[in-house]
Amino acid sequence: MPFFVIAEHMANGLLAGSYFIVLALGLSLIFSLGGVVNLAHGAFYALGAYFAYEAQRLFGFFPAMVISPVAVALIGIVVERLALRRLYGEDPALGLLFTFGLAMVVEQSLRLIWGVSGLPFAIPEALRGQVFLGEFIYSRFRLTVLAVAAFTVLACWLLLNKTAFGLIVRAGTRDPDMVRALGINLQPVLTMIFALGVALAALAGVMSAPLAGVQPAMGSQIVTAAFVVVVIGGLGSFWGVVYAGLLVGVVRGLTVLLWPPAAEASMYVLMILILLLRPRGLAGEKFEKFE
């Protein structure tokens, strides 16, 4: 089998992994600090794609990459402040039920507003075409998506490790009682983390829209993969999520090449194998639930 064929499938796997990483980072941040399993994360992913669909018609694709995540972040702030905040410290099942219901409401709302059929989302003119590296040929848009995902990971790491806000987030994840004892109110921090998390989901939706299209159920189709990446990477681990996303993407890409019918199942098999060897995932950390 020619090497460039293997390289192309690995690159496609990394592309899928980049969506998983951006989506799973937001999911992991929300869970690590708030202890909430956000089943509506895929709904925010779909919202990001639909908002970008409308924004790119008015302003172009690149402004839409900013407008859509910001708009979804604002919606996330409203949801967290009016509803989700009431569930912190309560039975975790309440958070699961609320976010599950929210996901269903958003998905049906998308059908009512934009219809049940998928919407075409064209690749922007500036990013069309191919990049040739010897026998290896790859889409310019896909390379751009990989670059945006890498920049997003770096920006999130810098925010969490090189700023005062990030210091509070990391301290709140590990020992919220001590943070409160120091007189720091974690409620605004948690609101901003929720907003950041759903904005990352929206950004993943924007990046995937030109390749996968836009349709109401797109969130429910990818959120399971995001949960798999979080579990494989380890709860509370930033780099664990990144490594897991890359690993899942590459495994899926190579499975598509070698045994296409098993491509979807490959990530679940990988999750089982890793959890058997490392029950906390690749780099899981202990954390205290915020109350």
Describe the overall structure.
This protein has a single domain, classed as ABC transporter involved in vitamin B12 uptake, BtuC. The chain contains 11 helices and 2 strands. The longest helix is centred in the first third of the chain and has 32 residues.
What are its keywords?
291 residues; mainly alpha; ABC transporter involved in vitamin B12 uptake, BtuC; 2 strands; 74% helix
Please give the CATH architecture.
Orthogonal Bundle
Number of helices: 11
CATH topology-level name:
ABC transporter involved in vitamin B12 uptake, BtuC
Euclidean distance between termini CA atoms: 55 Å
Work out the radius of gyration: 19 Å
Q: Largest sheet, order of strands side by side?
A: 1-2
Strand-and-helix sequence, N→C?
Answer: HHHHEEHHHHHHH
Structural class based on helices, strands and sheet pairing = mainly alpha
* Poorly predicted runs of 5 or more residues: 287-291
Relative strand content: under 5%
**The CATH C-level class name:** Mainly Alpha
What's the total number of strands? 2
Largest β sheet strand count, sense and barrel closure: 2 strands, antiparallel
The oligomerization state is single chain
Share of residues in helices: over 70%
Gross geometry: globular
Number of self-contained structural domains: 1
Q: What average pLDDT do the residues reach?
A: 87
